[in-house]
Automatic annotation (TrEMBL):
Its EC number is 3.5.1.110. The gene is rutB_4. InterPro entries: Isochorismatase-like_dom, Isochorismatase-like_hydrls, Isochorismatase-like_sf. This is Peroxyureidoacrylate/ureidoacrylate amidohydrolase RutB. Keywords: Hydrolase. It is an enzyme of class 3 (hydrolase). GO terms for molecular function: hydrolase activity. It comes from Pararobbsia alpina.
Amino acid sequence: MITVDALPYPFHFDPESTAIVSIDMQRDFIEPGGFGATLGNDIRQVAAIVPTVAALLSWGRALGLTIVHTREAHLPDLSDCPTAKRMRGNPKIRIGDPGPMGRLLVRGEPGSQIIPQVAPLPGELVVDKPGKGAFYGTTLGSMLEAHGIHRLIVCGVTTEVCVQTTLREANDRGYECLLVEDAAASYFPDYHAQTVEMLRSQGGIVCWTAPLKNLLPITA
Ligand code: C5J
């Protein structure tokens, strides 16, 4: 077992049973004209973590961890997008509508692609998800089971929405999870900070947290 200096206490993992889950590092959340921007968000807040996520993925690949990438994206006929989700808020364009990067949050469209700096390499797992959590409506659970994965090292956007929902889903399913604090971001820095605090509170009620610098010294 490898030990990471983490909060609220050290996190232990072995490379064979651990996956990095990189959540929704898509153009739709990070680039101008995407879903996140159409909701009025400041995308610079989430774009800032791209180098940290890239460094985390490089570290995980060198250590031989299983790498999973998720994308929040709906089927082209929107049959997996509840009307309530599509109608939520008051955006100029809605999920499924044409935008500068194709149809918003729809599978296969340019906006749904993971940005090149942190894109999947051949052989890495990619999960398209209709919800905020990566387990809901996907085969993630069976994929992880098939790979013998019991621990998740999690990063991505946004901390208080898809990252947090996925961590809570994983926690309820018995996974031990470490959130890499500076490899996750929100459009709202306060939400990020509070979510990190909340998730690791009460003895790590949902997960452990650590900054990337605590992982990088660990080598194969
Ligand atoms: C949101 C996400 N914020 N990936 N999605 O709608 O966090």
